[in-house]
Amino acid sequence: MADEEVVVLGFWPSMYGTRATIALEEKGVKYEYREEDLSNKSSLLLQMNPVHKKIPVLIHNGKPVCESLIIVQYVDEVWRDKAPLLPSDPYQRARARFWADFIDKKVFDAGKKLWSTKGEEHEAAKKEFIEILKQLEGELGDKPYFGGERFGFLDIALITFYSWFYAFETFGNFSREVECPKLVEWAKRCTHRESVSKSLADPKKVYEFLLGRIAG
Amino acid sequence: MADEEVVVLGFWPSMYGTRATIALEEKGVKYEYREEDLSNKSSLLLQMNPVHKKIPVLIHNGKPVCESLIIVQYVDEVWRDKAPLLPSDPYQRARARFWADFIDKKVFDAGKKLWSTKGEEHEAAKKEFIEILKQLEGELGDKPYFGGERFGFLDIALITFYSWFYAFETFGNFSREVECPKLVEWAKRCTHRESVSKSLADPKKVYEFLLGRIAG
To answer: Which family does it belong to (chains A, B) (predicted)?
Structure first.
């Protein structure tokens, strides 16, 4: 498809924004990335996502698509010829959607308790967070990717949290290698992909960003 | 498709469970409905949705699909020949998914404040709830259905809240006819469909159920 204008409004540490760029990279779609200052949102962001006023927004030929998992599905449906992201089987599609929704409902909310709680509450938060990782590891099983032999929708949904793992692990005082070694191997496999390595924020920088936010 | 076994685990006042049965009715799929006692969940529910332990669950030939909007998409993808629910155009699909997600993020959380708050907080809750309705009415515009000329995915996502409107309106002390007349007309149109009228709980019974819960 020629003469297409594809713009992504994002914010560098966002695990949601990064999903949009990985999906576009997988499809080989050219796009312009615009970094948003969330303390001073652009008029374009407010105009394109008036309901939530949040990144990411994918703007395709002037029309906005909002919410990261909806963006990934949209990208998959528009650029169908290359790198299918969702499985073709309806049951497997439902399953991928279920676990992506699980990630959105659980991972960040549980993760942020790792730096916002102390004492017993922190111990409970750590236990909860590790349990979530183990549930995800259970869904991965012995497959190379959540998508099976192929990197796909659910891989994109989760790998963008990779940038946050150093922070989760450090604040949580646990070792991901000990707790979820298969997930660590999966993440390495994903980060070897150019689509992923180009898009992900540096985990140490995310940690520093977070320290700044906590202090600030 | 013959010899298929389709079971829905639901709970009569649930706006989420009802989405599954409306989708199946639209497609003309025969199914068995099993009412769950949420204070004493069946071993089948716990086995079929071990992650969230929630209704609705659609069990299709022994395999579970969980989360209501995922179920509706699954039903649409498996029984493709009749009554398409999601639009065929990717942009319109993304838009329908966006507003369905908006409903799930906003309507119930805002609605329950109508019976759990007092005074100024209640006034703010009422204002917030009416604003959400107006946003949805804006998306409907002058179309007969959210799906355009055809009843579809987003119509299913919202109409199941109809059973709760008497409660929202009574606790919120507002008139839906005054605040969102187009949405009222749309709802009437939807409830004339057999798929909807067969599935929806009686609004007065939902109100009484809620009074019992509040008292209880």
So the answer is: Belongs to the GST superfamily.
> What does the pLDDT average to over B21-39?
97
| A166 lies in the same domain as A107 | yes
Q: Is residue A1 scored above 60 in pLDDT?
A: no
pTM of the predicted structure, to 2 decimals: 0.97
Show the domain range for A193.
90-215
CATH number at residue B170: 1.20.1050.10
Query: Quick check: B77 and A65 CB within 8 A?
Result: no
Query: Do residues A36 and A109 share a domain?
Result: no
Amino acid symbol at B215:
A
DSSP states of B79-142 as a string? STTS---S-SSHHHHHHHHHHHHHHHHHHHHHHHHHHH--HHHHHHHHHHHHHHHHHHHHHHTT
**Claim to verify: residue B117 and residue B16 sit in the same structural domain:** no
Residues B121, B208: one domain?
Answer: yes
pLDDT 10s digits, B134-160: 999 999 999 999 989 999 999 999 999
| Distance, C-alpha B27 to centroid of its chain | 17
Share of chain A above pLDDT 90, in %: 96
Determine, for residues A97 and B63 on separate chains, whether the beta-carbon distance falls below 8 Å.
no
Please name the residue of chain A whose CA is at the shortest distance from the CA of residue B75. A90
Chain A residues in contact with chain B using a Cβ-Cβ cutoff of 8 Å = 51, 60, 63, 65-67, 70-71, 73-74, 77-78, 90-91, 93-94, 97-98, 101-102, 135
In this prediction, residues A155-159 reach a mean pLDDT of: 98
Evaluate if residue A2 carries a pLDDT over 90. Answer: no
- CA separation for the pair A33, A30 (Å, rounded): 10
- How confident is the model over B8-28, as a mean pLDDT? 98
